ABC transporter A family member 12-like
Amino acid sequence: MVNPSPASFWTQANALLRKNLTYQRKHIWTNVRLILVPLFLCLLLLAIQKVLDSLLKSISDMSDCGSNAGLLGVNCAIPNPPLLPPMLQIPQDELRSVKADFFSYRDLPDKSCRVTGSCPVTILVTGDKLSLGKALSANIFTATSFVVNSSNLLPTLANNVLGSTVSAGKDNYEDPGFGYDIPIYSIQSSCSANSTWPLSIGQFHADVKCVQGLCLWRNNSIEVNDEIYKGSWRGNPAGMTNEVAAAYDLMSTDRKNFNVTIWYNSTYTDDLRVKLLRVPRSINLISNAYLKFLKGLGTNILFEFVKEVPKQETKNNQDIASMLGPLFFTWVVLLLFPVILTSLVYEKQERLRIIMKMHGLGDGPYWMISYAYFLTISMLYLITLVSFGSAIGLRFFRLNGYSIQFVFYFIYLNLQISIAFLFSSIFEKVKTVTVVAYILVYGTGLLGSFLFQKLIESESFPEEYIVGLELYPGFSLYRGLYEFSQFASRGTGMKWQDISDSGMSEIFYIMSVEWFLVLIVAFYIDQVFSSGKSPFFFLVNPFKKPSSLPRRPTVQRLDSKKVFIDMEKHDVTQEREKVQKLRNEGSTGHAILCDDLKKVYPGRDGNPPKMAVRGLYLSVPLGECFGMLGPNGAGKTSFISMMTGLLRPSSGTALVQGLDICKDMNKVYTSMGVCPQHDLLWETLTGREHLLFYGRLKNIKGSSLTHAVDESLKSVSLFDGGVGDKPAGNYSGGMKRRLSVAISLIGNPKVVYMDEPSTGLDPASRKNLWDVIKRAKQNTAIILTTHSMEEAEFLCDRLGIFVDGGLQCIGNSKELKSRYGGSYVFTMTTSSEHEEEVERLVKSVSPNAKKIYHLAGTQKFELPKQEVRIAEVFRSVEKAKSNFTVFAWGLADTTLEDVFIKVARTAQAFIPLS
């Protein structure tokens, strides 16, 4: 059955789609395991959520409200906040200000106080009036001992200045300064030795230690600021910390005006709320000192306590999916990337795409079906995730608008598939690309969680930098999921009216533009590197008619001295003239015409350029099988690669069915079949499924397709016993070889290239395969490469011996034997002492005989046919047997193998100039 016309775009698309669906069905459990990963994660998040909800419920009774409540997102009710005495933030003993080389002040205590733990708490004072400053400094700290009335605790405690080296909390409901094993300091103008007093406030008990308060005058605010800066651990050039508790600039203060600037110590925290909680005590100290200055020492401002406002119990609805969603769901979505990428690179690595292309699959159907196939799989994957997450109650999915989620995932999945196509055009090995893909998956999630999210939440990080980071698609995905989690944690969810306020609008825009650009770049790289097109292929006018090819000179310039060599090979010269005549006449009767086809590989690592094919002229009509023989490295593979579109010719061209391989290769593929040297098969597809796919590419349909597949399987002995319905991965090497031949012949292509088709076959299978090929060549032009001379003689109508990039001879088997084999081969085996007698015997029969082999008594000679009579050879051998022992002897005509060896040796003796 001959296909009426090449397969259309939609026929090719249908063939590829059916193949992909069959392949997917074979890997159904792999897909199930892939889908189970996000579903298992959702169940894990649900389990954690249930445990958290149970804990929240268990502490709803405020009698159970304790230290774990904050961890569980519960703020306990405080109807009557405690009354806590105000405290001054003071430096730790070993950090308090002492004399130092970077200070010019001599009024500070000696650093030996740090050894005894007796360093005072220093407060600096400056202003316009020295006398006023001295007076206020004397009133800041009292000289009275620590005395409190337990029955009237807070009022009497207010007369004491208490301090703590522990930083305040975020509020005053529970001050960390009132903690167990944490001392409280009473700051006095002077302390006696070992001054310590007990203090009890409610259930709190602690010791109060006396510490000296030292007020020092500085001439101006510049000196104060300089001393504070140099004494801090950030600004100290000597690495020594000298901290002051506070500093006051009295500025224009007098008896009628009170104008003060206060420096407060906030070294221990970066939280603004915590910094300010102990400032009121600093204000009270200078205000009380000023009041005493005006009204006398008997006047006091009693700062008894600080108290927060009452508050009700509040619960933060902690949604684990919302908290952990950005990280885990980034991984879930990105897990599709390695799956898609490895699938694309696998087809490239195993050369499955190129073999599909050689059998007629165009780039358009391949891109459309592959892209739509991966997009469908990806969307089903995400729809399953969202549906399952919503069904089990995860607010991350339920609260956010489903239409927004669909648009977001749809855009990103398209971008991800485009990136996978781009990466597949760059990488060649599945193992390499798998490692890279999973590094990107987990690296993106971790960087997003521990770096990018911190930058998003930072108020100081510029917004334009955030946008710049979002140009990386993984961060765009993370930002979108982060916004979903934020809105879900608020209990409202994201709606379309929230898009502009959430940053999602810029995410949609960035991903949409990148999707478009990445897809274009991926297609361009694929066309240039995979399809072998010119980098400027998009500039070619599609309506311009192809120009006729320039004629080539019949002689070649072989060196810079313009030395011309006339190739005195009559058969090769005749073939070249035949090709030139056919080209001039415009004849299309020949299926294959090679016109001065050349391939030169550029020099590398200091080596000169390598000419693999040297101006090849060849014509192969329909119905002929042309055998190409040659040693390894002769250029046969380069020739086949050019004819099948894997390589572009360096110069010259070839016509296949009248179509130029340099310009119309995509059209050439529609009438071509290929049996590559290595079997290119899908391991999980059966032989029948392979043939169905390639048959559809050849535009065979319906019952004709079924019949053609059955006949192909029968012809290569893969039909009986259900062998054709078994996965190709279970086939032996010979069975795979037979399937590759069947694939190359299905649909009766006009041109077939077979590279060593019978390799690995047993004799019976080889003979059966030869019969198949011989029947197929009736309406097909076949070019066959082989190292089997028996196969070449059986199948090939004409043979060409290819050596060092060029044809050395061409003709049928008999012609080559007659032309290059004008001699008999005489072989005789005797003991070593009779070797000279054998040589004399041969010379008597044929004076011009030539010894071509000699080993351990066995000698082989070439005898020119024109001077040898076979009867005389027999008589001479019988006579010799009576004189010495002859173990074996023989006389044979020249074989094709002898011709091959002779031509190859002769050709290699002369290496033409490049």
Q: What stands out?
A: The longest strand covers residues 204-217.
